[in-house]
Amino acid sequence: VTAKTLAQQEEQLKKMETISALQETVRMLNTEKDKLEQEMQQAQTKVKKLQSDISPLHQSLSLLSEKNGSMQADKRILEEDLKRWKAKTQQLLSQQKDGDVEERQKLSTEREAQQRRITQLAEETAKLKTELA
């Protein structure tokens, strides 16, 4: 066996060791790949479930958002109505107060006129009694 043959055998032995190491690495990588594919499948299944769980929530959110918008509009309308009613109430109260003052003044003037009339009639009655006596 020559040195050349020994070198070739040694080179072949190194190649076989390298091939063996590469085969082991390929097996480990395939195992890791299978594990990652399984995890990816589980993650995809979980994502699909979460998407199906979230879909009704999106619909509910959409409906509630619509309802909220409608209720906000109703609230604004009611607030405007309230402002108008408050203004109308204030106006009516002012009119009533003004009317009461005017009415009292009118009644007071009328009362004074009636008092003068009563005094005048009392004087005339006394005068007539005096004339008759």
Q: Give the integer mean of the pLDDT values.
A: 94
How much of the sequence lies in strands comes to: under 5%
Describe the largest sheet.
Answer: none
Number of helices: 1
- Beta strand count: 0
Distance between the termini: 187 Å
Which structural class do you get from the secondary structure elements? mainly alpha
Q: What is the percent of helical residues? A: over 70%
Order of helices and strands: H
Number of domains: 1
GO cellular component, one term: nuclear pore
Biased composition (Basic and acidic residues): 97-115
GO molecular function, one term: structural constituent of nuclear pore
GO biological process, one term: mRNA export from nucleus
Question: How would you sum up this structure, described in words?
Answer:
With 133 residues, the chain is mainly alpha-helical. It has one domain. It contains one helix and no strands. The termini are far apart.
List keywords for this structure.
structural constituent of nuclear pore, 133 residues, Nucleoprotein TPR-like, mainly alpha, rod-shaped
